[in-house]
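Page 47, continued from p. 46.
Same chain as before, 151 aa.
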Amino acid sequence: MFYYILKRIVLGIFAVLAVSGLVCVIVYFTPVDPARMSFGQRTDEETIEIFKKKYFLDQGIGMQVFHYFEDLSPILWISNSDTRLEDYTLFVLKKFKMHQLIVKHPYFRKSYTSGKSVWNTDRIILSFCTLVYAIPSYISAILLQWFLHFI
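Result:
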């Protein structure tokens, strides 16, 4: 039984990594420039370069995918001088001279078009999906029957 559970966990992790990697490849190989999409065609090159540096769009696809998985990871080894520290930190596990080991929420960055954080939107969507799909159908039917009975 232990090996079955271990096998399911390993295959689940592999499936999540495979799907995430495939999504990254599809997103990063589309011929769309997120910086131009955010600011429009008439913006100056300096603003676009700052945006690309902030979201690691100036680096190769390997580093972009690495930073994507780094943003999703719940534990992170980060430099004290990193500008993303305020976006990430939930609480600090251990402080060192130049780095910190922190626990964080998955960081979904900000919307390219509106500049707003997408964390709240994703939390609402995930909560809805959990409620709708994860509750067994017979419990949902009983709750729905009780609700409709009183209306």
